[in-house]
Amino acid sequence: MIKIGLVGLPNIGKSSLFYFFTRQTEVLKEIANYPFATIEPNHGIMPVPDFRLEKLAQNFQSGKITPSVIEWVDIAGLVKGAAQGSGLGNEFLSHIREVDLICHVIRCFAGSNIEHVEKSVNPLRDYEIIQSELILADLQQIEKRKQKLQTLQKKQPQQTEEELEILIYLEQNLMNGSALSQLKLTAEQKKTIKSYNLLTIKPVIIIANYNQGAEIKELENYAKEKQIYFFPLSVKAENEYLDLSVEEKKELGIEWQTANLGPLTEKIKELLNLKVFFTAGPKETKSWLASKEMSAKQCAGLIHSDIEKGFAYVQVYNYQDWLIYPNEQQLSEKGKIRSKGSQYIIQEGDICLFLFSAR
Ligand SMILES: Nc1nc2c(ncn2[C@@H]2O[C@H](COP(=O)(O)OP(=O)(O)O)[C@@H](O)[C@H]2O)c(=O)[nH]1
Ligand SMILES: [Mg+2]
Q1: pTM for the complete prediction?
Q2: Which of 13, 149, 283, 329 is deepest in the core (most CB within 10 A)?
Q3: Whose Cα sits closest to atom 16 in ligand 1?
Q4: Number of folded domains in the chain?
Q5: pLDDT (tens digit, 9 = 90+) per residue, 248-265?
Q6: What's the domain range around 332?
Q7: What are 62-105's pLDDT values in tens digits?
Q8: Which atom of ligand 1 lies nearest, measured to the CA of 36?
Q9: What CATH number is given to the structural domain containing 164?
Q10: What DSSP assignment string belongs to 267-292?
């Protein structure tokens, strides 16, 4: 399952955001106005919104709708000096190593009643504090590997040379303050450095926790310049009005406080190179998240290992075609239903029926 880590300073709304995404009530006791209310990471899942799912389920009169899910990880706050171990920094940084994508959560809301570890609200400064700690942690990791290779160098000069060159290249960029995700690395280079489990190589998004009137422009412009996806959200208000409908919110004049998670999850899909395919029928309509390059047989394995093992073929048509020819007879007449073998690469929006022999 795809894991996304909520990363930021202490006491800025990470656990509140985790609750908004996952509705996991156990975290409520950790939403508190003091730093480090969260120590152990919280894990929870969120359904990926997809308007196509509802439409398909209606068509098939499905008894059940099951959206695909992603996992959010609420990680303890980092402080200045985390990479040197301040505030249990090393432990918290190690929790970030386990996620696929880093979601920087930045406090933009004003209000002196909520303690700020840096004593003032300054979104861009806070982002840079966290980013520096991630860069420092990567530099340490690279230094360790370099030392190891340098001792090996005398014995195996050829094997170590190429890797050392990559390490020096990464090191230089980190020392200039660049995250490794900003570099264009070849597939070969990526493979070499995969085992170091670096932090700044992970894709990044920013969530600005703001309220009405909060100053977010500077951070937003910075994100734009660096081509980092920027998503403003008013976490506290969202949680307060969680159960209100849009109409009820309109009556209260707070309809602006409904975050549309569609664009956010679309961006996550794009950054992690994911696609969605569907299985649909009267019993259940489901959406599935898979890596873009996954074949029909591999996708079948996401559903059940037996379907992968006994894979015969997949009967497939695409959602876009279904919109134009909304029943199987028309689809079939137009040649839009195809039978594909195990190596077929499932496409975004494919509606699949996997056929397999039970063994
Ligand atoms: N005024 C205001 N307070 C917030 C907002 N988001 C979170 N808080 C408060 O900030 C404190 C810390 O929130 P929490 O979610 O525990 O932050 P974490 O330490 O980053 O996990 C709690 O008292 C929250 O109620 C917000 O958007 N506005
Ligand atoms: Mg917390």
Answers
A1: 0.93
A2: 13
A3: 31
A4: 2
A5: 878 887 766 678 899 999
A6: 293-356
A7: 999 999 999 999 999 998 888 787 777 788 888 999 999 999 99
A8: 19
A9: 3.40.50.300
A10: HHHHHTTEEEEEE--SSEEEEEEEET
